[in-house]
Design brief:
147 residues, alpha+beta, 8-stranded antiparallel β-barrel, 16% helix
């Protein structure tokens, strides 16, 4: 191999190595510690809800609320008509949702915290039912991607 070929090979290997080195220097994106750090649109889409004392998994679908920086949607439980939801992330970083069975009055409320390390894909908290003033633990887990 001539000196010229060696020089070309050496330069080519440098150009190939530099982008790989740059890629290694990028820090991994950290998961948010507080739900206030998650963009509202990241909540849009499908979620699975498990509520203590209720059989099965409920399906929650959230979308953009037309009147404020929050979300609205539906909650479907097996054998029941869908409930309507509206909510946001409160100033303390808690997920706050109101649930209505009839579209007029609040039948339940949700208050939950982001589970650390889940990157906005899981919340745990308390579901309060208005009809009997009972409270139950819930887990809300992202089941699909946001729209």
């Amino acid at each position: 191999m001539t000196r010229r070929h060696l020089l070309v090979a050496a330069l080519a290997s440098c150009f190939l190595a530099v982008p790989a080195a740059w890629a290694q220097d990028k820090p991994a994106a950290a998961c948010p510690e507080n739900a206030r750090d998650i963009p509202t649109q990241s909540f849009y889409g499908s979620w699975e809800a498990r509520i203590e004392g209720q059989a099965g998994i409920a399906t929650m679908v959230l979308e953009r609320h037309p009147e404020y920086d929050g979300f609205r949607g539906t909650l479907k439980r097996a054998g029941q008509p869908p409930a309507q939801l509206a909510g946001d992330i409160d100033p303390d970083g808690q997920l706050a949702l109101d649930e209505s069975q009839d579209g007029k009055s609040i039948s339940a409320s949700w208050s939950g915290a982001l589970v650390p390390g889940t990157c906005g894909k899981e919340f745990k908290g308390t579901w309060y039912r208005s009809s009997d003033d009972s409270s139950h633990d819930f887990v809300l887990h992202r089941s699909g991607s946001w729209r």
